[in-house]
Design a protein that fits this description.
The structure holds 2 protein chains of 2 kinds. Chain A has no helices and 10 strands. By secondary structure, chain A is mainly β. The model of chain A has no long low-confidence stretch (mean pLDDT 93). Chain B has no helices and 11 strands. In chain B, 35% of the residues are buried. Classes of the chains: A mainly beta, B mainly beta.
Chain lengths: 112, 116
């Protein structure tokens, strides 16, 4: 079982603020790192899947970086909007049968 | 809509009941998954099916029995559950060509299960 840690556990920002979260995971036997957004009453939605050290991915105002050597990934949100309010989950894959191990998530609340 | 549907959305069952959860994916994926989300715990993988074969059973008690009759359908058969099995059960699918988890997963809306 992988030890996946996400910080902070929760975050409350104002509209327009930029923010970032951290995901830490064991660097050994790494294959991929997933980020998902889970809005209340909806299904988790994939944001990014990254596999290479130094990977950077971007989707609109959201971007992510990956450091597989030290075992961490950052998720950045630029100019937060209320619709960004959700729980953000990271999940590394250790390569066994597509097995993802999820962290407990960072709960983001963006207010006007 | 993610292309993954689950029924029922809510289920209340007694400890002696037998029920089944159903998942269907309309995405042409070759892998399907069952996850459990308990209160204040991370999303936890239960089972993985790839090309209709079970490739992962994550130490799940035998009172949970999965079935994958074809690549589009996945069932979770439940019998003699315990109150601590009350949780949100999510199904997901992916097109995983390598078996290494490098492809995004698409989740269904989940079944909220309450065991009384």
């Amino acid at each position: 079982i992988l030890n996946v840690e996400q910080s902070p556990q929760s975050l409350h920002v104002q509209e327009g603020d930029s923010t970032n979260f951290t995901c830490s995971f064991p660097s050994s036997n790494f294959y991929a790192l997933h980020w998902y957004r889970w809005e209340t009453a909806k299904s988790p939605e994939a944001l990014f899947v990254m596999t290479l050290n130094g990977d950077e991915k971007k989707k609109g105002r959201i971007s992510a970086t990956l450091n597989t050597k030290e075992g961490y990934s950052y998720l950045y949100i630029k100019g937060s909007q209320p619709e960004d309010s959700a729980t953000y989950l990271c999940a590394p894959s250790a390569g066994t049968a597509s097995k993802l191990t999820f962290g407990t998530g960072t709960r983001l609340q963006v207010t006007l | 809509e993610t292309g993954v549907t689950q029924t029922p959305r809510h289920l209340v069952m007694g400890m002696t009941n037998k029920k089944s959860l159903k998942c269907e994916q309309h995405l042409g994926h070759n892998a399907m998954y069952w996850y459990k989300q308990s209160a204040k715990k991370p999303l936890e993988l239960m089972f993985v099916y790839s090309l209709e074969e079970r490739v992962e059973n994550n130490s799940v008690p035998s009172r949970f029995s999965p079935e994958c009759p074809n690549s589009s359908h996945l069932f979770l058969h439940l019998h003699t559950l315990q109150p601590e099995d009350s949780a949100l059960y999510l199904c997901a699918s992916s097109q995983d060509l390598t078996g290494q988890g490098a492809y995004e997963q698409y989740f269904g809306p989940g079944t909220r299960l309450t065991v009384t």
